[in-house]
Amino acid sequence: METRGATATDVPEIRRIAREAVGEAYDFLPKREREATARERFSDERLESAMADDDAVLVAAVDGGDLVGFAHVDAATRVDSVGEGVLRGLYVAPNRWREGIGTALLEAVEDSIRERGFTQLSVPVLADNERGRRFLESNDFEKIEERVEDLFTGGTAPQLVYYHDFA
Prior knowledge:
The chain is an alpha+beta fold. The chain has helices at 11-25, 31-41, 44-52, 101-115, 130-138, and strands spanning 2-5, 57-63, 66-75, 84-92, 120-126, 142-150, 156-165. It has a seven-stranded mixed β-sheet, with helices on both faces.
């Protein structure tokens, strides 16, 4: 398995993995919300924009020529967040979970954003996403904030923000 920068030809597979992984990892949300999340967050427009953004990183994990996961980070936009990247998504095909692919993607993302001068990474995650929270905590991320996230189909859900300083 290798990690590399994602390309436009990866977009259909990124969307497939996002759909599958969101469907599994967010099984506590209604199906309609999971579908809207995958569709909205991983649209062609958003993915192409991320690939064109110098402050964003979109990394693909490839095994035997097949895309098996991806991660997306962009620069935080708060005034007090200079040097902070925000992990917008890290998804692995569910049939490949627990193989170290997520950790490899996280390491590749950190290496890439470190090269761009970033020293911190924050990750918003829905509070009920136990798998995501355990993954972050096992990779030395610390919970620093609790807030409420607006869902795509209406309503809200509790969200936690995790943080890692890798300077």
